[in-house]
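Journal club prep, notes for RB
We'll compare a predicted complex against what the paper describes. Inputs for the S-adenosylmethionine case:
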Amino acid sequence: MNGKREYGDYQTPEYFSLDVCQYLKRERQLTPSVIIEPTCGVGSFIKSSLIFDASEIIGIEINPEYCKTCKENIADSRVRILNTDFFSFNLKSLIKGKDQLLIVGNPPWVNNSTLSGFGSDNIPEKKNFKNLKGIDAITGASNFDICEYIILQLIDALHGTNSTIAMLCKTSVARNVFIEMKRTDTNLTSCDILEFNTKKVFGVSASACLLVITLSAEKTSADICNVYSFDRPSEVVSSFGYVNGTFYSDLSKNSPDFSGNCCFEWRQGVKHDCSKVMELSVEGTHFVKGLRESVDIEKNYVFPLVKSSMFKSPIISSFSKYVLVTQKKSTGKHIPHSDGFSQNMELFNLTQRAILKEEEFYLQKRTRFFYVWNRRLFLCKI
Ligand SMILES: C[S@@+](CC[C@H](N)C(=O)[O-])C[C@H]1O[C@@H](n2cnc3c(N)ncnc32)[C@H](O)[C@@H]1O
């Protein structure tokens, strides 16, 4: 176990959970009948949510010590703390027949790839919850934040009710959640992001926010997500969303020139899962990986690596990083199976050796590689 990191454990200071609850009560005029904190920790949000006139306040938490602290610190007959694992908990049966719920809290800040690295069991069973297809389902695209998974599970359970979900999360998670709600046609009245200073609140540098989603029992949808500052919740800072079915990441910047089909085929997530093996830089005429170790590799499978921050400049003309992109088909000659095997082995020889060197490292991290040679080099993490 890796303690705090495995459980994405950043307890919210009480002053901030109170600020959040006061905002929800005063500015959003919420009057919930039931409040649920899905990963309540030592109970900051449970305590702060006593300001609402709810008849029931339920906290779920995996850590028994935290549950004990919660019970000792909060003496109120409306509060119930359940020491259980959110991933195996039957949330739908807990909320059955209830409406006007408020789900408030701060789910774990960790992603499934980091947890796999620890060999952690604190991972939901259903990893491909966005129903990704093909290689996306088994490589980087299926890497996800545990926080995102929890919020999407909550949305799924509360679908068709007039409930509000108010969660602290990374801003990137909030955007993904909005996009996923649109993809799955979730009934929602509004989706807002209120950015706050994570350095001040949690002592860490990250772009994070309070995500407030108002679900609806009616067939309705919000196409735009407004972004505010938590300190000035009445002024829209920016917004993103859909206009005529097209997603715009910043609606204040009118940039229609960038919409349309790109002549390149883009692959996402490759670097993220296996960056220690796949990410390379160039020194002189050599590719160099991780700890400045020179790696001899065929150029056919190495492509420029473009990070999202690089899109700040309109033309990207140089690359400091490269990435080994595994292929479904080789660019070599297609040779019949029997003798083709040896020829292709030769073609990929250096690449193969470079990857095999890493195998032990990844096996230690409970990661396995498949190698399928003969017209294919295919590598994935499970
Ligand atoms: C980011 S902390 C936030 C705690 C609390 N919500 C707060 O705002 O102070 C995340 C919490 O999630 C708990 N947690 C992690 N995995 C969990 C799981 N599978 N089920 C329930 N709680 C979990 C951790 O123990 C930790 O207390």
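Talking point for the session: The two ends are 20 Å apart (CA to CA).
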